[in-house]
Amino acid sequence: MGREVRLVQGNQAMTEGAIYAGARFYAGYPITPSSEIAEECSKVMLKVGGVYMQMEDEIASIAAVIGASLAGAKAFTATSGPGFSLMQENLGLAVMGEVPCVVINVQRRGPSTGLSTKPAQGDIMQLRWGRHGDQSVIALCPATVSECFAMTVTAFNLAEKFRLPVIVAPDEIVAHMREAFSLPEPGEVEVIDRKKPSGSPKDYKPFVADADGVAPLAAYGSEYVFHVSSSMHGPDGYSNNDPANAAWRVAQLHRKIEMHRDEIVITRSFAAEDADVLLIAFGATTRASRAAALELRKRGIKAGVLQLITLWPFADREVATLADKVKTVIVPEMNYSGQVAGEVQRVLGSGADIRRVNSYNGEVITPQEILRAIV
Amino acid sequence: MMGKKERYEIILAGSGGQGLVLAGIMLGEAAVLEGRNVVQTQSYGIASRGGLSLAEVIIDWAEIIYQQVQEPDIILALTEEALEKYAALAEKGVHIFYDTTLAKRRAGANLTGYPFTKIASDLGNVAAVNILSLGAMTAAVPMVKTESLAGVIRKRFQGKVLEMNLKALQKGVELI
């Protein structure tokens, strides 16, 4: 007998991905279009021996997640635009303190509270630059319900492995859509846990990285007593104003991502090998782009799609390699400002001809809107 | 009755609170039971009651790439606003089922009106209007087997609500 196939919503699949990855702590403040994640966690966390906390706001939510993670739990929260904005300061703390955590930001149409039930892809730059102070995080963007599950597992793996916040940022359409989905068996998908220290507790330095660029992380409440601060700190976690130390810390926070760039950057391509027209897409836009590319092929135009699953760090190399072989590059996205198109322009150079397709009325982007930009 | 197709695109339209998203989910679940690919999406406003509310379902044996309905085969309109939006598609061959309790009657090919809301209300629960409508639609257009829908209903509900919903499904089938 085959495994059970169910009709599952993107938000539900992300919750199942978190549980599968070993998340046992959720703190959040429900907000459309991510509320189903809080709702599901309120039920499932208790069944798996985890903790669900409904907080007073998003600032407290991310603070609780950071605290739980430092106490040894895999922890996450889910939100949308307005809540994600509120989380930025503490996310900076998680970057600086190298605290593994996952934030799901379901993108809805803004600015501000905007259209709470409508999709957008307007937070791309906020995912990368939302926090002050020369920092870096990882952001992933699924396009299907299966990817919602898989990329949430990946988000926890990357967060645990590299001790940083990882953001999963589907648009509303992907988070709310339902598709046939079957849950992988335990052990079928790799689950990574953070490295723990093994030496003497009195010698533990929470910010001394191994050769892989990442330091082992002890748990609060264990025999390892350590200090985590949002201010500049030395290898022991205590305040340090030495310029050499500051340069080492800042570089280390970036380098651990750069060193493992190939493992972190995930892309997929569809019929891109022989393409003359390359559509670069992410999230729901991938699906409209694939449909548009198929239609173009029917009309004799060789079109393909590069899907950016990892949005940050940006897939510079993958974009450059494929774009080099084609005549036309098109970047459809559900924002006015062409946030990904700007990155593609940076990669390909200011002289490169990049066609932008921008949809920002709160409706779902269609294959026809993309086709109109081409033919 | 319409012949069997590889792919069906369905729109369920009405107002918030009529259970249209749930109807879309149940229709999708019935198709999943039959081993088919399904994408179900919805569009709604900020109100929990009222306002145009839509559920879309695509059922296909092949991979479903674009997630939204582009060429509907069948539409359910449970309010005048919803029927107004889609009525013109009937001329293009789209089967439109609508509720004569809440929308004005219209003449023309492919337009099928029943007082779904009144029938559900007479059965004892106006909230069963979504399942009653699905019963009628699947009897007319073989998107999924009625038995698959009954299976989904049995899994989702129990006791008196289950009985009511199965009765509503059967009543819908008998309309056709």
Describe it for me?
- The complex is a heterodimer of chains A (375) and B (176).
- In chain A, α10 (284-298) links the parallel β12 and β13 (303-308).
- With 375 residues, chain A is of the alpha/beta class.
- The model of chain A has no long low-confidence stretch (mean pLDDT 97).
- Chain A has a seven-stranded mixed sheet, sandwiched between helices. In chain A, strands 11-13-12-15-16 form a five-stranded mixed sheet, sandwiched between helices. Chain A has a two-stranded antiparallel ribbon with strand order 1-10.
- Chain A has helices spanning 10-20, 35-47, 58-70, 81-96, 124-129, 145-162, 172-176, 243-259, 261-264, 284-298, 316-323, 339-348, 367-372; strands at 6-9, 23-28, 51-54, 74-80, 101-106, 108-109, 115-119, 138-140, 165-168, 178-181, 267-270, 277-281, 303-308, 310-312, 328-333, 354-358.
- Chain A folds into two domains: 1-264, Rossmann fold (3-Layer(aba) Sandwich); 268-372, Rossmann fold (3-Layer(aba) Sandwich), CATH 3.40.50.920.
- Chain A has 13 helices and 16 strands.
- Chain B is 39% helix and 22% strand.
- By secondary structure, chain B is an alpha/beta fold.
- Chain B has a six-stranded mixed sheet with strand order 2-3-1-4-5-6, with helices on both faces.
- In chain B, α2 links the parallel β4 and β5 (95-99).
- The termini of chain B are close together.
- Chain B is built from six helices and six strands; from the N terminus they run βαβββαββαααα.
- Chain B has helices at 20-33, 80-86, 116-123, 129-140, 146-156, 159-175; strands spanning 7-15, 37-43, 52-60, 74-77, 95-99, 111-114.
- Chain B has a single domain (7-175), classed as Pyruvate-ferredoxin oxidoreductase, PFOR, domain III (Pyruvate-ferredoxin Oxidoreductase, domain 3, 3-Layer(aba) Sandwich), CATH 3.40.920.
- Chain B is globular, with a radius of gyration of 15 Å.
- Chain A binds chain B through residues 5-7, 32, 116-117, 173, 176-180, 284, 287-288, 290-291, 294, 364, 366-367, and chain B through 25, 28-29, 32, 35-46, 64-68, 70.
- β10 (178-181) of chain A pairs antiparallel with β2 of chain B, so a sheet runs across the interface.
